[in-house]
Amino acid sequence: MTTALTPNAKDHEGLGPMASRFVETHTMPWEATRYPGIEAKTLLVDRRTGLLTVLLKMAPGAMLPDHEHVQIEQTFVIEGALVCGEGTCSAGNFVWRPAGSRHQSGTPNGGLMLATFQLPNKFFAADGSATDMLGQDWNEIWGEATANSL
After folding, report:
1. What distance in Å separates the CA atoms of residue 62 and residue 37, rounded to the nearest whole number?
2. Domain boundaries, the chain
3. For residue range 22-34, what is the model confidence (pLDDT) as tens digits?
């Protein structure tokens, strides 16, 4: 049985375990993250394994601070550009990052991206603590998924 779901999706209740889940993204609300100018629509999340797919909208100048890609991350840029110290991924292009890579990234002029994570990013605070994008303790929320993904 699948443990994956799409929060805020309409008409998914009562579907059988093997039924396809059609997601009308335009009906879903943009959810604020803890980072100014960055909103997300969670298209799929599996808390057991950590698999996560999101539409990510970043306002001009928005930044994702220091974070680690715990497993492979994949991002397709739909609009705008995603910029980091290694380069720029512009609209219509794709970047993936190896497990364990760490960086900051942002959008000088804004952007819309489709991102898939094998495990959610780990964001680091000055005191060394790690949280997810929503500010939840990373180990508490995703620690079990780490064990399940290995």
Report:
1. 5
2. 34-149
3. 889 999 999 999 8
